[in-house]
């Protein structure tokens, strides 16, 4: 069962960003499913690394679009990205040290809430700016 589902309400109006957001949610679901089915450290670590890599790549791309559009809240948005990546990297370091137990249900809930909160709140705020500047 999926922990998170992509919903139209999460759309930021830019197909490439929506696709990246959806991919991150698919990876989060894969991580959760792997954890619940007892997958090993290597397999779960691979999915965790994919999630972190996809998130980092997405952030670089998104910040480029925000700069191009002249988004007024770019500094705060960058700060929220940096905080998110610090948290994700901290989870990754903990995972490398202690293995799958680092991905407890509270940690999985944190990952879910972090992604959904960022996409559903912070990213939605820039939707009008991007579309007004012709970024679709």
Automatic annotation (TrEMBL):
NCBIfam families: bact_hemeryth, hemeryth_dom. This is Hemerythrin-like domain-containing protein. Pfam families: Hemerythrin (PF01814). The lineage of its organism: Bacteria, Pseudomonadati, Pseudomonadota, Alphaproteobacteria, Micropepsales. SUPFAM superfamilies: Hemerythrin-like. Keywords: Iron, Metal-binding. It comes from the Bacteria. It comes from Rhizomicrobium electricum. Belongs to the hemerythrin family.
């Amino acid at each position: 069962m999926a922990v998170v589902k992509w919903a139209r309400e999460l759309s930021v109006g830019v197909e490439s960003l929506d696709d990246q957001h959806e991919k991150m949610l698919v990876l989060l679901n894969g991580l959760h499913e792997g954890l619940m089915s007892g997958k090993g450290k290597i397999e779960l670590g691979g999915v965790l690394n994919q999630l972190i890599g996809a998130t980092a790549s997405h952030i670089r791309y998104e910040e480029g679009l925000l700069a191009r559009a002249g988004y007024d809240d770019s500094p705060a948005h960058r700060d929220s990205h940096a905080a998110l990546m610090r948290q994700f990297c901290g989870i990754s370091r903990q995972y490398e040290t202690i293995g799958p137990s680092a991905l407890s249900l509270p940690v999985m809930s944190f990952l879910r809430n972090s992604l959904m909160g960022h996409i559903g709140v912070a990213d939605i705020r820039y939707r009008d700016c991007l579309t007004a500047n012709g970024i679709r």
